[in-house]
Write a structure and sequence with these properties.
This protein has about 325 residues and is mainly α. It has two domains: about 10-130, no CATH class; about 135-300, Farnesyl Diphosphate Synthase (Orthogonal Bundle), CATH 1.10.600. About 70% of the residues lie in helices and about 0% in strands. The chain contains 15 helices and no strands. The longest helix has 25 residues, at about 225-250. The protein is globular. Mean pLDDT is about 90; it is low at about 305-314. Pathway: Carotenoid biosynthesis; phytoene biosynthesis. This is Phytoene synthase. One of its GO terms (molecular function) is squalene synthase [NAD(P)H] activity. Keywords: Transferase. InterPro entries: Isoprenoid_synthase_dom_sf, Squ/phyt_synthse, Squalene/phytoene_synthase_CS, Trans_IPPS_bact-type, Trans_IPPS_HH.
Length: about 325
Amino acid sequence: MSPGGTEPSAAYRHCRAVAAAHGRTYFLATRLLSPGQRPAVHALYAFARTVDDIVDHGTKDTAAQLDLIEQLLRDRLAPHRSATATHAARLEWEPVLWAVGDTIERYGIAPEHFWTFLDSMRMDVPGSPLFRNRYATMAELREYMRGSAAAIGLQLLPVLGTVGPRAEAEPAAAALGEAFQLTNFLRDVGEDLDRDRIYLPAADLAAFGVDDDLLRHGHRTGRTDARLRRALAHLIATNRALYRRAEPGIDLLYPRVRPAIRTAAALYAGILDEIERSDYAIFATRAVVPRHRRLRVAASEFTPAFLPFIETRR
């Protein structure tokens, strides 16, 4: 039992439930990982999701909550653990923090990847010294994604395992994390506008005559202007280049995990296909890979034993 009273099995079950409820593509892909790896991946996902939800449903004390989570995790990882937080806060986050702390220690994940992730989350919090809700260039956006996405890939890498030196696989793992994140940004432009955030580089948009006002008009009317369609086509090409950059790194992973990662990459990249198929109607509909395509992608990677599970997922 953890110092806070959480049973280890209960902590990991909690993380699995979070992953199953919110991360359909990732949860599906984890089914091809070994039983020993799955709980660790669920823990990493649950930590990121918990923090992301705190930021997205922000209150006036969001920055303080992020600081508290960081302190709790640092305490969890410290050789001589302290209790700096209130009892209520420890209880609220205990399952996720216990599981992710155990995963960090078990797999030797560099804690710096978690501090980098939390700093990127602070960039989403109004009033934080790091806050920003617009990005002038792709280089600026990639600095944000270094923590929000690339760090996630680097957290996962020790869990997945590599056939050679881990450092050789790190650039591809970071690129795949960024590719997933940019796909999210392209799909969720409307949702992000509702939070007064734009995660598409202003320079790339301006090159096609797109500005904040045009984006807001599209969101208000549900229509995608021809200029925005051209900008989205350009950014989708940029996104696909990230997937291509990441692809060789999959062969550096343990053979057992390669099908799971290929499946996750193919399914996520498929969202870009759906955006194109809808004629870039990002404000009128949420791009989702249809079930028949998920089955086709899965059938090319998953063994027959996993297909009944895939067929039941919605």
